[in-house]
Amino acid sequence: MSVRPRPTAPPRTPMPPPETAVSPRVSALERDLAEGREDVLARFWAEVAGRGTPLVERVAADDDHHVVTFLWRDPGTRTREVLLLANCVTDRSVLPLSRLLRVPGTDVWHRSYRLPGTWRGSYQFVALEEPFSAATGDEDGNDASAGHRMWRMLGLMAEPDPLNPRRLPARWGAPPKSVAELPAAPPQPWLSPRPDVPRGSVTSHVVHSGHLGEDRRVWTYLPHGHDHGSDYPVLVLLDGDMWGDALPVASTLDNLVAEGLLPPLVALMPDAVDNPTRWRDLGCHEPFLGFLRDELLPWASHRWRVTDDPARTVIAGQSLGGLTALFAGLRAPERFGNLLSQSGSFWWSPEGGPSDWLARRFAAAPRLPLRIHLEAGTREWILTPATRHLRNVLRDRGYEVEYAEHDGGHDYACWRGSLATGLVALAGGWV
């Protein structure tokens, strides 16, 4: 299998520094310790166990923000430093603001930020026996820099918050993450199975691709009561190893169908395989598009009578998958008429191409019969401007574009809830 070289990201813009804060509860702990009160630490950790982590406290005279305190309890090791890796809140470009502070003489490590009440995100900790001191990248933000490699290494060393039971699974050997959400974060009501909702079925298959020259695993979702006599709408959901396995989307689809917000549909979820293969396939790769259009959809239609109407076909993806969803509509509008992109990697271009390569392609092409839903996180300081630019280009060309932003980052913790919003918006035009 040939794998194209990973494209070079655009010059890296440093992340805007997060707004740090002082936790009233940690300040009270420090005062109690200074006054020599007994059982202070035991009471503090008992309170934390009851409230859960991170600690969320009100900001005086500000109903829209909270002080969010991430806590690490030292297990008695030789920990010299603890880093917080919080999605699009911390970053290697603001490393000093990622370091937790230790309450002297205690097992309490902490770092507080002032965040809007609508925020949701995932995070991890890295506990180190030696202080971390690595380059944060060259002055051009080159992703091949030592700083980038070191930051990736930290990601492999990271671990979820042991005090927070809410977890987000990962893949390819990466550690799971913890999930935090503030009181005004948008609800995610469709995620969990409901006892009164009939369940569809998810199965795994192997589909051979002549375009790719290899077999590809594919997860499929069939709605409850699937009838071989109907032509079902079809959803192609990229990164199927996440949605078919690690973060099963079946409950979301079951609930939306039961509520009448989606018609019964068939979902096809191809495996991303591994990171190099994913970079190849989801980087506007014509053979992968050929696999989806010429092989996967006909394979499914032969078995389950999925529609061949592009107006009732959705292709959806996140990050590079979001880029691929738009590319599929541009190159194969006769098959993909509904495009759903969450945090699409619209900085991508062929080697040497402009960073708004895809937007230029849409601007230069005739207007196509496409309906589009775009989403980005307000904290994605590189992707959000690129997504807004693409939205404006598409609207100027007369496309029907739904656009949404979530208060978060490049994060499955956000995507798994707002995927439903995008699907419902696109299905509103189906008959």
From TrEMBL:
Location of the region described as Disordered in the Swiss-Prot/TrEMBL record: 1-24, 183-204
Enterochelin esterase N-terminal domain ranges (all copies): 68-190
Ribonucleoprotein as UniProt keyword: no
Domain of life (superkingdom): Bacteria
Pro residues composition-biased segments: 7-19
SUPFAM superfamilies: alpha/beta-Hydrolases (SSF53474), E set domains (SSF81296)
Location relative to the cell: Cytoplasm
InterPro entries: AB_hydrolase_fold, Enterochelin_esterase_N, Esterase-like, Ig-like_fold, Ig_E-set, Mycobacterial_A85_antigen
Keyword terms: Cytoplasm, Hydrolase
Pfam families given in the database record: Enterochelin_N (PF11806), Esterase (PF00756)
Membership in a protein family: Belongs to the Fes family.
NCBIfam families documented for this protein: PRK10439.1
The name this protein goes by in its record: Enterochelin esterase
